Amino acid sequence: MTSKLNLDFDRVEAARRSAHAVALQTQTFIDKHTTVAVERTILRLLGVDGVDRFERPLPNIVVDQIRSGGGLAEGVCFWVGNAMCATGKSAQEVAEAVSQGALDIMHLPVASQEKISKTITKEAIAATERIRARRLEREALLDRLGEGKKPYLYVIVATGNIYEDVLQAKAAAKQGADIIAVIRTTAQSLLDYVPFGPTTEGFGGTYATQENFKIMRSALDEVGEEVGRYIRLCNYCSGLCMPEIAAMGAIERLDVMLNDALYGILFRDINMQRTLVDQFFSRVINGFAGIIINTGEDNYLTTSDAIEEAHTVLASQLINEQFALLAGLPEKQMGLGHAFEMNPETEDGFLMEVAQAQMAREIFPDAPLKYMPPTKYMTGNIFRGHVQDAMFNVASIMTGQSIQLLGMLTEAIHTPLLQDRALSIENAKYIFNNMRHFGDEIEFKSGGRIQKRAQQVLDDAADLLLEIEQIGIMSTIEQGKFAGVTRTMTGGKGLEGVVEKGKHYFNPFLELMLGGESR
Amino acid sequence: MSSDNTVDLKHIKPYGDTLGDGVMQFSFTLPVPCGEESKEAARQLLLKMGIEEPQVVHAQDLGVGYTLFVMYGKSTHTVDYTKIEVPKVDSEVMEKEEVEAYLAENFDRDIVIVGGCTGTDAHTVGIDAIMNMKGYDGHYGLERYKGIKAYNLGAQVPNEEMLAMAIERNADAIIISQIVTQKDVHIANMKALIELIESEGLRDKLVVCAGGPRISHELAKELGYDAGFGTGTYAEDVASFIAQALVKRGAR
After folding, report:
1. Is A171 at the interface with chain B, CB within 8 A?
2. pLDDT digits (tens, 9 = 90+) for B112-148
3. Each residue of A186-196: pLDDT tens digit?
4. Domain limits at B103?
5. Of A268, A396, B233, B249, whose CB has the highest number of CB atoms within 10 Å?
6. What is the domain partition of chain A in residue ranges?
7. Helix segments in A411-448, DSSP class H
8. Cβ contacts (< 8 Å) between A187 and chain B: which residues?
9. Which residues on A lie below 8 Å from B231 (Cβ)?
10. CA nearest to A401, candidates A330, A444, A353, A434
11. Is a pLDDT exceeding 60 seen at residue A517?
12. Per-chain mean pLDDT for chain A
């Protein structure tokens, strides 16, 4: 590919090598550990679902019994597999018996590792096949119905009530949206369990539950038939239940998941050991299920300055890319994030935005880049805000972005009203259609402002990655190099749920999914 | 209608292009399909609101049998501007350097401010704009002020933790940001913090302020805060208030 920015691709390769080394160092740690969330995820994949009469999810009850019995290091496959051998019950029946106090899986005769492994692996293969079937179902629907042109129009619904969300999502699809993201209620990322059933009460968003996923999936399939276009569904695979949400999403055929390797550490103060282990398994699942992940680099720019910290976005994109590759997630499913967040009062600010967006496009040619709208400098002046969103749309179509999270003229005021979403879709459709091939027609002046800016950001990112390679990702975060946020190895929420794997530990899903067809 | 350019402050109404014309613009959605009936419904709604000559200039189907309207009309209502009273933060706003000089003059130590987004709120853009070194829009944040030690605890800080940190750091002031206000979630949360501070007997010691796009000084006062700051607030507004409030209380 010829670079419009005259980027030094040797420099890009050097940066990528650094990021790869960083990811490899971290993977050594990840491979040795498991977490309560990873174990609950395995149970969900094995078909364990439901709650007891106190609304406690069965996967939590089983993992809690194993943990308080001191057996977490051996993992649920060992303990539940053993219980299945001893009782002849299914994983779900074992979980139900545990939740009723009728079974203590920590005090059963221990079967041979071979027998346990055989029992679990059989179930794991069946579970993996169910997810494969959902993936094939998506591919068939995409073949039959087709999809919107890129950049996909991505809008959020956030009413707190899944049934109200359905109404808004259907309206958005009819207006032209391609991806509907159901924002989660504000506190969910810090819950160490996934709520159950359909929900109608949330603040600033709706609980991610498997039933809510199912309700929205079915609504979008329905409206997809009406509009003759496959409508993708997005949710949030982050927080303390990151891999569990991935499993639920894979089972319910979600298409897109917010899924950043570092976001929870930096912005939700979740313990870094916990997040690094959790993100790996969540990405293995997302990769196998054909789900496009979206990374959260845009968040750096809401806390730090978008002009000064632009290189941290690129550095993080490269790290996210390498973590994702290690988890078997191919480039075509890597919705690496960035954002249009520079102060609009900046002279030639638009030139720098274009430089950043074009640079991301050239460095990640196969990634479905996720472009985030202005939020930090949206003021409440909705008329000006609509123009800022238009500028954002222009930058996107000029530089070939893939997923456009549409800006709302009422950003900074309230969660979008029905009409706000309609206006923003109209804005994007107008600009994308009217400027469809503009990017193919233009080149940037050699040695001009746009080229120089991109080259500078690349240089700074490569330097930063070299530094991170030397000190490791954990020290980098401890020193506050991303988003100016400092976190420690043992600080933050959820550390108590991390444990080193024991000698009986096994997780057949890693092999089944990593050896899958996603590559 | 006035025949000259003198505004009648006892009876003000919106200005379109002629004084006293009362022209207003509206946009809203009605949950009925786009058509002559819904346009008439929209006109009747404006009439009921006291808007004369309502005109539908745009009506658009939103895909689910609901309709977006853009309308213009003329207000029949007026407001007596001479009787308006709005509670305001009653301290002088100083520039950063002036705040620093004021602090140096009145304190022989750094004053301590802890802040964060309390409750379930995960949106730190407001508290970051006020507290972080960089600040916002060219206005440096509290972390950059000489004479202030600022601790930004970030997102989703439980009220208990906020207060515990204030005690641990021997804070002079607590500032909280509330961005998510859907279903009034911020009201209960803001009240809870004040009650907690009172139950620890620290209300007189601490200056407590709240900020956010839906927070007014009036609301904050009503909930027991010393001040509330809305949109357009910069670090110097908050710093000026806290510094002067502390001096008024005799803090040294």
Report:
1. yes
2. 999 999 987 778 888 988 998 877 878 889 998 999 9
3. 778 889 999 99
4. 96-248
5. A396
6. 1-30+332-488
7. 418-434, 438-441
8. 120, 122, 156
9. 379-380, 412
10. A353
11. no
12. 95
Nearest by CB: A413 against B28, B183, B213: B213
Q: Is B221 a catalytic residue?
A: no
Q: Which residue has the tokens 């790290």?
A: A319
Query: What domain count does chain B have?
Result: 2
Nearest to B125 among A203, A269, A302 (CB): A302
Instruction: Output the six-digit token pair for A151.
Output: 């950049």
What's the complex ipTM?
0.84
Task: Encode burial over A378-416: b for 16+ CB neighbours within 10 A, e otherwise.
Answer: bbeebeebbebbbbbbbbbbbbbbbbbbbbbbbbbbbbb
Mark yes or no for CB contact A186/B121 under 8 Å: yes
Q: Which residues fall within 8 angstroms of residue A420, CB to CB, at 6 or more apart?
A: A408, A409, A410
Q: Is B180 within 8 Å of A204 when comparing Cβ atoms?
A: yes
Q: CB distance from A106 to chain B under 8 Å? A: no
CA distance A410 to chain B (A): 12
CB contact under 8 A, B185 and A343: no
Kindly state whether residue B146 falls inside one of the protein's structural domains: yes
B4 found inside a domain:
no
List all residues 6 or more positions away from A516 whose beta carbon is below 8 Å from its beta carbon. A128, A132, A287, A288, A328
Q: Is B170 on the interface with A (CB under 8 A)?
A: no
CATH topology of domain A1-30+332-488: TIM Barrel (3.20.20)
For residue A35, what are its two tokens? 């977490």
Determine the Cα–Cα distance for residues A169 and B62; give it in Å rounded to an integer: 11
Kindly state whether residues B121 and B217 are assigned to the same domain.
yes
In chain A, what is the greatest distance between 2 CA atoms, to the nearest angstrom? Answer: 74
The whole-number pLDDT of residue A492 equals 87
A101-144 per-position pLDDT tens digit: 999 999 999 999 999 999 999 999 999 999 999 999 999 999 99
Q: Check pLDDT > 90 for residue A302.
A: no
Half-sphere exposure of A408 (CA within 13 A, CB side): 18
CB-closest option in A185, A204, A380 to B231: A380
Query: What residues in A contact B121, CB-CB < 8 Å?
Result: 186
- Does B89 reside within a domain? no
